[in-house]
Amino acid sequence: MITTDTWLQEFSDYNNIYNINESGHQEITIFKPLATKKIRLLLNNLYDDVPLKFTRLTMCKEGQTEIVVHIDGENSFEIAPHTTRWTDWIDIDIQANDYLSIEIYSPNKTIHSLGSNMSESFTKVHNFTDRDDGFFFGVSAVQAQVKKKPIKIAFFGDSLTNQGFFSAPLSKELTYINRIVTANYGISGNRLLHSGSGKSQWVKSFGPAGVDRFDEMIEEFKPDIVIFMEGVNDLLHPGAGSPISELPTSQELINGINKLNQKCSQHNIVFVPMTVTPFRGNINNGIYAWNPKKEVVRQEFNRYIIQSFPYAVDLAPFVSDSSQTRLEYEFDSGDHIHTSKCGGKKIARFIERNLIDRGLVAVVKANRNLI
């Protein structure tokens, strides 16, 4: 049997969020792409200074009896500050494309180690309060024992990836095509070249620079394909929340993405970068974030991506209006940078066509002798 991640969501330090678990009860429902009879959960307390206590943790398939989850045979336990820990293996008969519901009971009201996903295509969160912002705690990965090694795709980027409006429906569609599992390594506010900085209340959650956290993603998930979407915050944040001195040149962005491509080449990973989408009209920290200089950098960086990477996806023109500097209305969530839920589904289909037309899945399978 092979042990593999079948679901993974990057957590970050949301130190400004309080009472996320006011009810003491959270339910997470996760789409499971692979059949298995054994799974375990990764419990995450990486960014808190106090233990994360679990008085009860259960899981079940829809309509079936709950199974109590243990650590070292105990059904109540705690995760030490700044750590993660795997549960014991659980016997459960999951078929491909089942949904798994996880129930968490914890006395911790304020928890800063959180994941976030706004789409309900792959993961649904219910915390039994009035919150509907997509934040969740406790479980950041699910592993399963399977008979054959799956193809693993990591989505790496910022909030456009993290929110799940394109990555979640794309993940679900891909699992119907082949033996594929995906992981969401998007962090809201994340930049390719710089860690979080500036005056925003969210600055700690922005995480390390993409070039710095990429190695950890490779080591942790061991992907076959990385779908990369980052760079817009490198342009948007400087002068509108972070120091203007952090505004990169196009060459600095090029150097950064080349480092990621080199890391992928060293590990025989297919690198699929997407062009940086427009953000004209966005207001960040009360400041108009776009200017012509930033637009020139974005266009130069995008030209390099298209010319230099064989599997690049030219997403920017697909979502732009006729000026090529703004999001088209049907893709715009309203803040002129994030895509809408409906727009995300169209983006997912656009990316899927690119992946299929270029035969990426077939290439990976051939390279690994899986056909």
TrEMBL record:
Alphabetically list the UniProt keywords.
Hydrolase
- Domain SGNH hydrolase-type esterase per the UniProt entry, residue ranges: 155-340
InterPro entries attached to this UniProt entry: GDSL_Rv0518-like, SGNH_hydro, SGNH_hydro_sf
Molecular functions per Gene Ontology: hydrolase activity
Which PANTHER family does the record match to this protein? Answer: GDSL-LIKE LIPASE/ACYLHYDROLASE, PUTATIVE (AFU_ORTHOLOGUE AFUA_2G00820)-RELATED, GDSL-LIKE LIPASE_ACYLHYDROLASE, PUTATIVE (AFU_ORTHOLOGUE AFUA_2G00820)-RELATED
Query: Which named protein is this?
Result: SGNH/GDSL hydrolase family protein
* Species, as recorded: Companilactobacillus keshanensis
